[in-house]
Write a structure and sequence with these properties.
single chain; mainly beta; nine-stranded antiparallel beta sheet; 1 helix; 9 strands; 48% strand
Length: 124
């Protein structure tokens, strides 16, 4: 009898690679991926990380006030979680103890009006 875990793991790896490859640059200079129709831009500035959330049209900001988000970060062999604060008009902002290193993996989990989003990014 075949087990489905290896197949599921392979599909997750392929999905992560496809997401990372399809990222484009956004208005704020960060990588953008589209999840559930919402463009999400990730910007890392020193010890601050910012996620910009847009509506399905790719232009209008999605309100984040009153909603929650969290980032899970794998960097330098360590995994950490950062609670993100909503910031108007359409941002989730978090503060890190140290700047992100090269090839750090960042996974955003956010609740916004009508959606629960997850987006994956890899730093340059």
């Amino acid at each position: 009898m075949l087990r489905s875990e290896p197949i599921a793991l392979a599909l997750v790896c392929v999905a992560f690679a496809a997401t990372a490859q399809s990222a484009t640059k956004g208005e704020n200079g960060g990588d953008v991926v589209v999840m559930e129709g919402h463009p999400i831009e990730f910007v890392s500035k020193g010890q601050e990380i910012i996620f910009y959330i847009l509506e399905d049209d790719g232009k209008s900001p999605t309100p984040t006030k009153g909603f929650s988000a969290r980032a899970v970060i794998q960097d330098g062999g360590k995994t950490s979680a950062v609670n993100l604060s909503p910031s108007e008009p359409n941002m989730f902002v978090g503060h890190l103890p140290t700047p992100l290193g090269s090839k750090a993996r960042v996974v955003l989990s956010a609740k916004i009006p009508g959606h629960t989003l997850q987006a994956r990014f890899t730093t340059d």
